[in-house]
Amino acid sequence: MPHPVIERLAGGLVVSVQAAPGEPMHGVDHIVAMSRAAQQGGAVGLRLNGPDDIRAVKRRTSLPVIGLFKQGQTGVYITPSVEAARQVVMGGAEIVAIDATLRPRPDGSSFTDQITRVKAEMANVLVMADVATLEEGIAAANAGADLVGTTLAGYTEESQPTDGPDFGLLTGLLRHLSVPVVLEGRVWTPQEAARGLAIGAWAVVVGSAITRPQLITERFVSELPDRP
Question: What H or E segment, with its residue span, contains residue 122?
Fold first, then answer.
């Protein structure tokens, strides 16, 4: 049986509440407000970046948190080290999201090296493996990941770009893995989220379509006729 925290996510929507420096919604107060709004709207969990945001949100909501710590902007930058994972756990996240692609970490280690140390050094920590390909998902599950997400599909050289969610990868992972599989990445509509659950995803993570108003606005504007 999955861990009780993972059980809480079953069949539900996890809202990724993140804003990069320079974006209008960047800042702890905005992240907390959006997280509270997500909880009021029925989210079963949150995905948050950085120990400060995690810590602040945990004080104001009761939802389980998938935490990560982005460091850098290219290559492996989602919780790329054991120390980054430790900061996420210290912030209060129940689940740590880690880039589980086969690309080397900045320190030259592999995902298997990293998750082995994380599991050994942090009691009862749960790990969500963010992958881009079926091969990576299988390797991550074999290494001990508690959940596997399609988070990075289309964002690496090893994966194929898609306009929407990678339902093909989701289907493949479900066919080969026994751990819960999460649909994440380019989920823009409720219909896509529902389709992911119907295929068999344990949960669906949605970020930009809910919490990045500048991108939501751009999508509306792009569909309008050019102004005179």
Answer: none
Q: What is the DSSP letter of 42?
A: T
- CB neighbour burial string for 80-106, b if at least 16 within 10 angstroms, e if fewer: bbbebbbbbbebbbbbbbbbbbbbebe
Beta-carbon count within 10 A of 49 CB = 21
Give residue-wise pLDDT tens across range 126-150.
Answer: 999 999 999 999 999 999 999 999 9
Burial class (CB in 10 A: 0-12, 13-18, 19+), 158: middle
Q: Which residue has the tokens 């689940």?
A: 95
Q: Which among 206, 126, 211, 203 is positioned nearest to 170, based on CA atoms?
A: 203
- Tell me how far apart the alpha carbons of residues 138 and 152 are, in angstroms, rounded to a whole number: 15
For the chain, where are the alpha helices, taking DSSP H only? 4-9, 28-41, 51-60, 82-91, 111-121, 134-143, 167-176, 190-199, 208-211, 213-223
Cα dihedral angle (155, 93, 207, 152), rounded to 10 degrees?
10
Domains and CATH numbers, the chain: 4-216 (3.20.20.70)
pLDDT tens digit string along 18-35?
A: 999 999 999 999 999 999
Query: Which of 181, 15, 152 is CA-nearest to residue 80?
Result: 152
Categorize the per-residue pLDDT at 163 as very low, low, confident or very high, splitting at 50, 70 and 90. Answer: confident
**Angle formed at CA 84 by CA 214 and CA 35, multiple of 5 degrees:** 35
